[in-house]
Amino acid sequence: MEKDKLTFDIIGCAMKVHNVLGNGFQEVIYQRCLAIELERAGYEFVREAEQNIYYDGINVGTRRADFVVENKVIVELKALTNLEDVHLAQAKNYVVAYKFENGLLINFGAASLQYKLIFNQNLHSENY
Q: Are strands 45-55 and 58-69 parallel, antiparallel or unpaired?
C-alpha cells in the first residue's frame, strides 16, 4: 500500500526534526519538535491522546497515543538505537485497538530516521 499525502507529510515533518537534531535525545524532545513541525505544516493533532482499550467489550484500561493527526493517523514515536519487532507489534496493536485505518511508527534514535507504515488489516482486508 502506498503512502497517502498525510502520512507522507508526517514523515517529512519527522525528517526535518531528525535532520536538525540528529539522534541521541529523549523521546519527549522529538515529540515536542514534531509537534512544532506538524503545526507549521497546518495539521490538526493531539499529543498524548488517551484512548480506551477494550477486551471483549469491557474497558480494561487506557493508553496514550503519542500523536493522533487529523483524527486519521495514530503516530507512535521511539528514540531507540534500532526498532525491534516488539515495537512494531505494539504500534500495530494500537492501530487496531483504536480502530484507525493507518498508523506510523517513527524512530528518531537511529543514525537515519526509521519509520514503518502500519495498516489496520481489519479495515484494509481487501488488500490482504
A: antiparallel
For residues 112 and 128, give the distance between their C-alpha atoms in angstroms, rounded to a whole number.
Answer: 30
Set out the domains of the chain in order of their start, with CATH numbers.
5-120 (3.90.320.10)
User: What SS3 class is residue 84?
Assistant: coil
Helices (H), 41-82: none
Task: Provide the grid cell at 77.
Answer: 514515536
H helix or E strand, kind and range, residue 63 = strand 58-69
Q: Which residues pair with 49 in a beta bridge?
A: 65
Pairwise CA distance, residues 81 & 114, whole Å: 10
Q: What is the pLDDT of residues 69-99, one digit of tens each?
A: 999 999 999 999 988 889 998 899 889 888 8
Cα–Cα distance, 37 to 74 (Å, whole number): 16
Q: How many CB atoms lie within 10 A of CB 84?
A: 12
- 83 or 30, greater pLDDT: 30
